[in-house]
Amino acid sequence: MASLSRFAWGSNSKVETSNLPITLQLFEFEACPFCRRVREALTELDLSVEVYPCPKGSVRHREVVRKSGGKEMFPFLIDRNSGISMYESGDIVKYLFEQYGEGRSPSPGLLESTIFTGWMPTILRAGRGMTLWERSTPDPPPGKLELFSYENNPYARIVREALCELELPYILQNVGEGSCRMKSLVDASGSKELVVENGIISVTLSNPEGYVIGISYNGIDNILEVENKEQDRGYLSVVWNEPGKSSHFQSIHGTKFSVIIAEENLVELSFLRTWESSMNGTNVPINVDISFNYMAIDDKKQRRMATMRDRGTGQTLAYPEAVLLTNPSNPQFRGEVDDKYQYSLENKDNKVHGWISIDSDSPIGFWMITPSNEFRNGGPNKLDLTSHVGPITLSTFVSTHYAGKEVTMSFEEGETYKKVFGPVFVYLNSATNKDNSLSLWSDAVDQLSKEVKSWPYDFPRSQDFIQPNERGKVLGRLLIQDRYIKGGTLQNAKNAYVGLALPGDAGSWQRESKGYQFWTRTDPNGYFTIKNIVPGDYNLYAWVPGFFGDYKYNSTILITQGEVLNLKKLVYDLPRNGPTLWEIGIPDRSSLEFYVPDPYPTLMNKLYNDQPKEKFRQYGLWDRYVDLYPNNDLVYTIGVNKFNEDWFFAHVTRNIGNNTYEPTTWKIIFEHQHDIFSGNYTLQLALASAKDSELQLVVDNGIVSVTLSNPEGYVTGISYNGIDNILEAQNEEQDRGYLDVVWNEPGKPYSFQRIHGTKFSVITAEKNLVELSFLRTWETSMNDTNVPIHIDTRYIFRGGDSGFYSYAIFDRPKGLPSTEVVQIRIVFKLEKNRFNYMAIEDNMQRRMPTMRDRETGQALVYPEAVLLTNPSNPQFRGEVDDKYQYSIENKDNRVHGWINIDSDSPIGFWMITPSNEFRNGGPNKLDLTSHTGPITLNMFVSTHYAGNEVTLLFEEGETYKKVFGPVFIYLNSATTKDNSLSLWSDAVNQLSKEVKSWPYDFPRSQDFIQPNERGKVLGRLLIQDRYRQYGLWDRYVDLYPNNDLEYTIGVNKFKKDWFFAHVTRNKGNNTYEPTTWQIIFEHQHDIFSGNYTLQLALASAKDSELQVRFNYPSINPPHFTTGQIGGDNSIGRHGLHGLYWLYSIDVPSHHFVKGKNIIYLTQIRATTPLQGVMYDYIRLERPHT
To answer: Residue ranges of the GST N-terminal domain (predicted)?
Structure first.
């Protein structure tokens, strides 16, 4: 209080360049309020000074003052630099600022004193530092003492009082906030410390870093691990990385300390670390003293713990956190596994945990209490760390534990962000004797209840921490409906999890880390109340234990200050496409109900031996899979097996020794008792966890077995004729068989993208037909990383087929951004050491070089063309390999592929396209086929041989839907090497069968038009080639040398008298002028009232503008103009049409007269002979009466 009464005076050093030699001598005594003002000024000016204490009864220093100044009055200053000496605190303060203040003026509090600010510190300290101690030594020490402090430090005041009462001279090194002597302090002491006491505990923090370096409690000087460095005892840390770079661990150390508030019963301190560009980025760990040896994280998970030394002498297991204790200091731990992940808890339960010094006669407890989860990431069910061997206690705010990189907090360049993490409560308690040590856990749980009731706290002073009266509340009732349960009647969503998180898709809350989350559970009737919500935009999410699916309320919720929002009744229509045939497990977001094996006896944690529900926490259970299934993978028969006994808790790899592993395939076998229903069956699949895994689907029709990644839809394997995989297994799985696009946002570079689905579904599963869907839906969060089109990749498998079908549905609903697509194709990359002979038509077949031959060759003008200089097969030396050499027109690009011609049992892989209806550019457009790799393509859309004019351009918001395919991937085989080339003939025959079957009747997409839904066009084409002659446009001036064309209705005939193209007039010397054609007609009757209509259809236009006038040839502006139109150049390219133009021109009746009328058609643009229009049809209509 003595320090607080002088406010902040004497706390900060305001002069940044002060580093003067010590020339000042100050004679004073600590209890003197006027002396204090001088010391405050010295702190603010960052000046050091020799201090000579002059308490009452002084035997040395008062005599010096009397001799030097003539009287015994304080304070008294001597400046040896200027030779000045003076009394009076006000004069001294002014002098110091004039001499050393760099133009600054002293703070008002340094020049004046009130009873409170001047004398209150002396009164509160009961006159300490005023009188000489009666037992002080008359002789000072040989060297001066050195004190680093600043005037307003309450702990430094106590030291100065002692120095004064002992009359010990000392050098005062001022180190106020911002002082240039901070480094000297660190060099001298090793740290800059702040000590905060509240009468129960004392906490020491480093200044300005903010590390907790000491906690004193119940007579123990420091319950933190003093053998650790100061920055490794209690700290805030982050693990961060720049995009694409490795992660860094960083303990956050402040660079600026400040006191936010200092009241009688409340102190809040700030240690700010501001990021700067020169630095070119959550966890609160605390390392507790080793005497803490008993850890508790819930009522049952409590035990004595090993030490860090025990871990250091142990054996590291599969990952560094897991250690087998081989030589522990306590023999009871020998043979146990210590692993911090064995003590993880879900966020909703991770509220209090910590340590007890259980062997002490006066045991104490150290607890981390988290009263709210609103600032944690991943929602209520996310698992995270608690306390573990060290002894270490954590409060984890954000982590990727048990979730992976999907929950990483990612920030775009320039993105703004602010969020408050905490407060959390570090709680200490004590027991009177060893027998009551475990009561400390119960007390900590009681303290948690008190903290929860007090949340949100009303005492944090940060404006960013939202106070209780500023928060909102949401009420409602959640009901569920399943039309196949209880007749579809509404049911109460009992014990459902209901929460608010940042807007996103259903279920996105579990991947969300940036925003706040607020969760609750419903009561037995489905009612819920979500309290203490920070204002902002949210979606409401829910899930119901025992029911499949994720709920999301259909509207964004805006919470304002103090708002109470009643959503009333919400109905969750559970995902369901039909009645249940069978099910495995319980939809509760956990695999706890499945079979968890016993751990290896030599790798146990004894804590869980008697807790069956916690058995999954034991180390190494994944390796028990190969013990239970040594030869064959798990087979589960519906109606025979039980999931709690026969379904292994984790679908893991098979350990085959020598640190090698292989994929595993589990089988679900069931009997379909009834006839197969028409329509789609649905396989609902819920995964509780996944680690670097890919759940694949294998479809086997007895001839071909195809493996697909789930949910991406990549073809990762094709097994045929005894070969495990005819695709290139050395490629990454996404680089074997896939659909890809090349696209760009307008004005930006092109991007190549393999399409990977995010949602798998079974479209149909019949006895002889399976169709699978891998849907990738575009979302705004994808920005420029994914082509803005919904893409559904489909695969069809039919019984008896030697192959499978593939097609894709591209769909753009309203609201998607603009984009350009230049390529859509299907790609298969075959095993490079197997396929070596390529065939694309009868006369285009050959052995092919390899990709390695290309890599060792010489690139030519463009990268696709390579001169083979060192091929593995000498016959290719000197040849050029270029995939464009094997292009063919769409009309002929129907079957192509590869043969492994050197095999004793050759097989063929063929791409068959039974129709070109979905390809771009028409029948004569050239495109790619197969090429060195070996690679086989099916090109749906490309700009090859056409350029950007055939790009698929989509305006913002433009809708679109098109089916590409199906195409048939066909495999065949021959009995001997001599018959290998017969595989081409067989593939051609298969093409004929596919063409005859087109359009297929088996695809189940409603967007694929079935045979009986399609139309037909018949006709006869006759050819008159006269228009194909060159230069016909120039004949116009021969036929109309002086005047332009005039056409009289009822007299002329358009076949003889209407020139085929309205062109310019050639004036010679490459100059041209516009032409005006006249249509003359007689109006036999009176003029009708209303508008006449001139219907005008143009078959072609080239850089032209057609103006129309009625009876007034020179009127401007014209009655109608097309504006500049056309670029198809049909006139000069021997065509009769280009792009079609239609115009309906309203003509007010007053433009016509009874009798003769003339319509003037002027094509006014005339810089070349080829500008003009070609008419298709002209009609004048009278008003309707």
So the answer is: 22-104
Task: For the chain, give every residue range classified as CATH 3.40.30.10.
Answer: 4-190
Q: What is the pLDDT of residue 115?
A: 44
DSSP state at residue 118: I
Contact (Cβ atoms closer than 8 angstroms) between residue 168 and residue 204: no
1026-1181: CATH architecture: Sandwich (2.60)
Inter-residue contact 99 to 82 (CB < 8 Å): yes
> What is the CA angle 266-270-276, rounded to 5?
170
Query: Is residue 749 pLDDT above 80, yes or no?
Result: yes
* CATH architecture designation of domain 468-573: Sandwich (2.60)
β-strand pairing of 352-356 with 345-346: unpaired
Tell me which of 47-51, 675-679, 1024-1028, 1143-1147 is least confident: 1024-1028
- Per 3-state DSSP, the chain is made up of helix, strand and coil in percentages (nearest 5) of 15, 35, 50
- Homologous superfamily (CATH) of 4-190 is Glutaredoxin (3.40.30.10)
DSSP string computed for 1100-1133: EEEEE-EEEEES-TT-SS-SEE--SEEE--TTTT
How many CA atoms does the CB half-sphere of 1165 hold within 13 Å? 17
Burial class for 64, CB neighbours closer than 10 Å (0-12, 13-18, 19+): middle
The span from the CA of 448 to the CA of 557, in Å, is 31
**Which structure tokens are listed for 1086?**
């009176």
Cβ(640)–Cβ(654) under 8 Å?
no
Among 1176, 1179, 1178, which Cα is nearest to 1098's?
Answer: 1176
Structural contact between residues 694 and 709, judged by C-beta atoms closer than 8 angstroms: yes
Q: Which residues pair with 271 in a beta bridge?
A: 257
* Helical segments of 276-392, H only: 308-312
- ω before 33 within 30° of 0 (cis)? no
Q: Which residue has the tokens 């009130």?
A: 114
Amino acid type, 894: R
Whole-Å CA distances, 956 to 633, 753, 942: 51, 21, 22
Q: Are 781 and 705 in contact (CB under 8 A)?
A: no
**Contact by Cβ (8 Å): 542, 478:** yes
Distance CA 1120, CA 672 (A): 72
The domain defined by 695-1010 folds into Beta-galactosidase; Chain A, domain 5 (2.70.98)
CB distance 654 to 661 below 8 Å? yes
Pairing of strands 323-324, 337-338: antiparallel
Among 60, 4, 1, 68, smallest CA distance to 29 is for 60
What confidence tier does 60 reach under pLDDT thresholds 50, 70, 90?
Answer: confident
Phi, psi of 389 (to 5 degrees): -50, 135
| H/E segment holding residue 984 | helix 982-997
